[in-house]
Design goal:
Blueprint: E1 3-5, E2 22-24, H1 25-65, H2 70-73, H3 90-102, H4 107-123, H5 127-145
Antiparallel strand pairs: 1-2
Helix pairs in contact: 3-4, 3-5, 4-5
Length: 146
């Protein structure tokens, strides 16, 4: 067994369990075991928090499904209700805007269609089409306020 005599205010003073001023190999091993156990405990607590958060989220989602209108959950229940949009060119975008303005759909659905066109055009870096879609949405908003 090797012993190490401590200097004054040493960082290893915490390892000296019996306060005799000498740190033995057993005391070093004991402190190493304590640090390993503390690390494992922190890791387990983090895993428990993550598991709890995911369980709460899954439970909340499941509970919310009982209160959500199923019509909003179903995707393309009626494919004839789909509105096709074209925006390859600014002329296509203007034609789509004219079509959206004249179709018999609620205001929110029209805004949704134009938003889809705007977002897709933005990803494709078509600034003119984005401007056309934004101005069409503003036009619909102004017409709705009247």
């Amino acid at each position: 067994m090797t012993q190490k005599k401590l200097q004054g205010k040493s960082k290893y003073a915490a390892y000296d369990i019996n306060n005799d001023g000498i740190v033995s190999d057993e005391e070093f091993e004991h402190m190493a075991e304590i640090k390993r156990l503390e690390h494992d405990l922190r890791k387990q607590r983090a895993q428990r928090r993550m598991a709890t958060a995911s369980l709460v989220a899954m439970a909340a989602f499941t509970a919310a499904m009982f209160f959500v209108d199923l019509e909003r959950v179903k995707a393309h229940e009626n494919p004839k209700d789909t509105v096709s949009i074209k925006f390859a060119t600014p002329a296509d975008a203007r034609a789509t805007v004219r079509k959206v303005k004249r179709i018999n759909k609620p205001y929110a659905r029209k805004i949704q269609i134009l938003t889809v066109m705007e977002q897709r055009a933005k990803v494709m870096k078509k600034a003119e089409v984005v401007r056309i879609a934004k101005s069409a949405k503003e036009s619909l908003k102004r017409a709705r306020k009247k």
